[in-house]
Specification:
two-stranded antiparallel sheet; 71% helix; globular
Amino acid sequence: MNFIDDFARKHRNFGIKNLMQHVCLITMIVFIVDTLTGGRLTPFLYLDRSLIFGKFQIWRLVTFLFIPQTDSIFWILFSLMLYYTLGSALENLMGTARFNLYYITCAAFTVISALIFGGAYTGYYVYMCMFLVFAYYYPNYQILLFFILPVEVRYLAFFDLVLIVIDVVRAIMWLDIASAITILAPFGGIILFFGPEIRDGIKAYKRRKDFQKKMRD
């Protein structure tokens, strides 16, 4: 989007450099405190409209992004290494200002949806969106799954998309439309920042396939 690019060019110092390094560090601290206290910290971090409006716990507008998605030391190390790798790659690709804007936008869409429709949420789908963007730009990048098995991120991205669709369908089947909307909310960041580029890429791919088909015929 032109206005996003213009802002990023005019405000090159906007945002936090090495953003995902800071995010991963804070998330690891939360994980350690949670482990030592038997999980007593994370209940104070969820994005929960009732507690934000009812008890003015406004820190939840940010802290939901730092909630670990696991209580396993193995998986937290794996996930944080992954977040750091993909976040650093996207920041190098997009620039610090634009990457920070993208991260903030995905988080903001989640916050707005949660404040409108209610519920309690973590930053899980924000980071899923980040992973999908990384997979779009680096589809052949290999990740050592379980620190052993090399897997190209495009296959993991497809698996993640399936999981997201299942989550949305399950929410709709339970008539929980609010949750379905909030799950999809951070994808607004992808549409806003990368929509036209992804659309043009799909068109170019289709033209290439059509040309190859004509050549075979």
